[in-house]
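User: We ran a pulldown and think these components assemble together. Before we commit to crystallization trials, I'd like a predicted model of the whole complex to look at. Sequences follow.
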Amino acid sequence: MVPLEYYLVVAGIIFTIGMIGVIVARNIIIIFMSIELMLNAANLAMIAFSRNLGSMGGHVMVFMIMTVAAAEAAVGLSIIIALFRNRDSANIDEVNLMKW
Amino acid sequence: MELIWLIPLVPLAGFLLNGLFGKSFSKPVINTIACGSVALSFLLSLNAFFGLLRLAPESRSFEYILFSWIPSGSLNADVGFLLDPLSAVMILVVSGVGLLIHVYSIGYMAHDEDYSRFFTYMNLFMASMLVLVLANNFVLMYVGWEGVGLCSYLLIGFWYEKRSATDAGKKAFIVNRIGDFGFALGIMLLFWTVGSVHFATVFNLAPQQLAYGGGIITAATLLLFLGAVGKSAQVPLYVWLPDAMEGPTPVSALIHAATMVTAGVYMVARCNVLYMLAPTTLLVVAVVGMFTAFYAATIGLFQNDIKRVLAYSTISQLGYMFVACGVAAFGAGIFHLMTHAFFKALLFLGAGSVIHAMSGEQDMRRMGGLKSKLPVTYTTMIIATLAISGIPLFSGFFSKDEILWQAFSSRFGSPLLWVVGLLTAGLTAFYMFRLIYLTFFGQRRYDDHAASHVHESPRVMTVPLIILAVLSVIGGYVGLPKALLGGAWFERFLHPVFAKGAEIGKLAEGAGESHATEYVLMLAAVAFVVLMIFTAKRYYLDRAKDSEQFEHGFGGLYKLVYNKYYIDELYDRVIVNPLVKGSNLLWQKFDVLIIDGFFNGAAWLAGQWAISMRKLQTGMVRSYAFVFLGGAIFVIGYLILSR
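Assistant: Here's a predicted model for the assembly, 743 residues in total across the polymer chains.
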């Protein structure tokens, strides 16, 4: 059986990639995808812990997060489409009207 | 007697009726409400008085609590009324003289546009004054005290289009504030040390709890006396009363001669127990009274405005009353208060009648020879003048003589007080007869235009004059002294109120059966007064042409007296101007720079903070995410490290 640490390391790597993606990327779609990466890294860690501890709580949590992620994807994509229609661009740095 | 609570309430109802609906009432309705309510008060007062007479002298004290007003811990003030000989005399004088003056006002104010407003204020005044004299505790008395002050202000400034009238009203109000401040402090000090504001309780406990002549009782009585000094226009707070003559003449008669200004005397007499506990204060009261009496009489000598002469005369006579209180002869003080109310109200109403006839002229130099034109006014004013001068058989003689005798013979008196009192009596006779000669005798000194208007006042004004004249003659006989075969009935009636104080002061009752000294002093006073009357006659009637020369013959002294010792100018320079300048300075420097600066500065600081902090809001989503990451790392780090 694969030890817990392996799962956690993979989950950490995926999460870090997602985080860096959110901060560094300018394309709004990439930021969106990076957020999904982070969510799934969390899911992976959750499942690993659940299996290791022999409890079902983690599974339940993962289903919850997947549902939320689906809803978030729907809302997020529609915002992105609305934004793109307005701006003809997916560059996040151009969306900066809400400031001092 | 159970109806005494109605006595102040009826004029209050009149005030509300006329005040709320007066504009739409016709004059007869206003008259009926205003005079009717005061007449009802007078009848109730008479009823209360006779009810009191039916009781035995020792039990002549009746309290009626209407309701509990301020029940707050140890402070308990009721709306409660006290009827005893002292307040019975006061309500009779106030409502009786008040009624006559109300009736007189119907004629005097007939042509005024603000007819209903005048009677509204007058009724409010009556209600406040009656509350003042009927109150059974200091707090309710203070309510009446402030109420009459307010009415005084409103009525002095009744003709508010006149700048001088509004100024005089403000002056009266502000000067009175100084006195009232002392009065309030005195009440608080008494409450603090004795633990009650209820008259009977305070007067019972004070002799036990406070040392005779001690610092606390002296301070408390002096503070109360400061209130009396303001309200009763004594030196140094008398300056408002002469200016108060800007008000309509009935107001001067009612408020600034007969009733309100005597509130201070009443208050001192009411607190006689406290004053007897503080001999130092008694001395102060006597000295202030005597000085005021003499000082105001000298100013009155050469004034030319008929009402101002009477105003200074009022101040002077009030001084007499305080002398009586100061030598522990409270009964004599109240006696003079009563006779003075009659003859001084009459003098003012007579002066009002003259002014009315002269179409508003108040300068006696432009009158003269009115004797035949105004027979009723002339006759009644002569009677009042004889009374105030202290000519035997008239009321003023008995009361003034009683005060002079007490000033001489009382344990607290001294021959010096008597001498100054005698001089004052002489001066009084002089300026009063000067007024009579200038107004009613000699050559006509007014122009033809005024001459065409001269007329005797209508019946509604002359009848009160006649009634007051009768009272000015017979008013003195209720207090006929023993030396003149009388029974001193008035003082025996009042005695229960002053008995406790007399006990504290160890005043011997009915001292000395021999009246030889009293007769000598009486004769001396009458002789001096008659001499002064003849002096006035000589310079203002027989040699009327030389009167100006006679006045100017006094040189600098004349100028000093004519200009009222420059006290108004002195007060302006020493008190009013520095105050105004100081206030301006505080406004421009302290208020604008410091207070406003503080708050504007606080707002400016918050603004600057916001200006620098809002740079954080860049609009760059990625930098927000970065801060978010930092925050998350911080929280997680904290959770891990703090384990």
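The longest helix of chain A spans residues 57-87. That may be worth checking against your pulldown data before setting up trials.

User: Thanks, that helps.
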